[in-house]
């Protein structure tokens, strides 16, 4: 059953940190000479190992389940996907289990199953073809609280982007559980820049933007963020961020929107692809 595959993909996402993230944390450990930072990185690696071995979530906050769906317009399952994602979220909450993280904004009542108004979050994109590709991003709340939007003036430009990101990372210190991964969306409008920033987190650590100019800025911001010395869990050290990912869209001539989504070391993700014959592939 296709819902089973989605539940298993959610399980994979919350219990197993992708290899590219793990090796970036190992590299950070290898180049670190601050003892406290080394200790914090060792603990993070231990949590990752336990999650993998015991098939339990790597962090108590299993996040807000967020789906990015690329839906092929000719897929025979187009009308069923939303129902599957809702059911899979409820089942994953009970079976894995996930922490119930969906709270009514007015009453404060927790729905208990990670579903509710607007959650799980589902971003849709219609694409040609008959496959359905679903990216799963369980997004922790502590790091999400450090996310921010800046509506810069065009004259502030990329220098303004640097300043805004560095100020926000400095201001947040250890709150987002660094070493972090920073998703940055530039252009579009206020809403779209934040969406681009969140989607950027699905890229592998070390994978640069295909545009050389943007890739260079990613590397420069990464270096500047790490020069802040905030370090793992905010207790000092060489690695404050494992990577910086920038996605761009054209902007209005009068606007320079910058969305920043901060992701913690628990950079969880999984992908599901559903073929028109009902066969499924799951990967990270
Ligand atoms: S920010 Fe990330 S690592 Fe920290 S508690 Fe939340 S999910 Fe866990």
TrEMBL record:
Keyword S-adenosyl-L-methionine: no
InterPro entries listed in its UniProt record: Class-I_Fumarase/Tartrate_DH (IPR051208), Fe-S_hydro-lyase_TtdA-typ_cat (IPR004646)
Domain Fe-S hydro-lyase tartrate dehydratase alpha-type catalytic: 4-272
GO MF assignments: 4 iron, 4 sulfur cluster binding; lyase activity; metal ion binding
Signal peptide: none
Keywords attached to this entry: 4Fe-4S, Iron, Iron-sulfur, Lyase, Metal-binding
Sequence similarity: Belongs to the class-I fumarase family.
Protein name listed in UniProt: Fumarate hydratase
Native organism: Thermococcus guaymasensis DSM 11113
Taxonomic placement: Archaea, Methanobacteriati, Methanobacteriota, Thermococci, Thermococcales
